[in-house]
Amino acid sequence: xxxxxxxxxxxxxxxxxxxxxxxxxxxxxxxxxxxxxxxxxxxxxxxxxxxxxxxxxxxxxxxxxxxxxxxxxxxxxxxxxxxxxxxxxxxxxxxxxxxxxxxxxxxxxxxxxxxxxxxxxxxxxxxxxxxxxxxxxxxxxxxxxxxxxxxxxxxxx
Length: 157
Hints:
Blueprint: H1 2-9, H2 14-19, H3 23-42, H4 50-64, H5 66-75, H6 84-96, H7 107-129, H8 138-156
């Protein structure tokens, strides 16, 4: 990471390491800012259903911000409790309380639906982030996320 920053600045890595003692501090700060950008994508109202909007926002983020998406995917495991990804996951679990389509599902069923939808979104995002932009429209992404979410809910019932 320090070499890439130094190259971009046209300098050696010494100023980078002098200013930021550990590379992980820089990566941590980049990740904090990246998650703020990701949140802005995920919280855009697209369908009026926060779960669909979050999934679509995640995928759109990966397409429009592939370098930031790759940083998230490269640096941390989402289930490492110290990471922003884990905090993101906890926010999603908290928001599941009171979400009408989850009524009648056990906590375990809700978590399984969310995990499977999350994995679907990651797969779709990873795939689309590497392909030419415009392969799928936002409307097509919404249809994919909606259809998958519905199938997962039906499967859980």
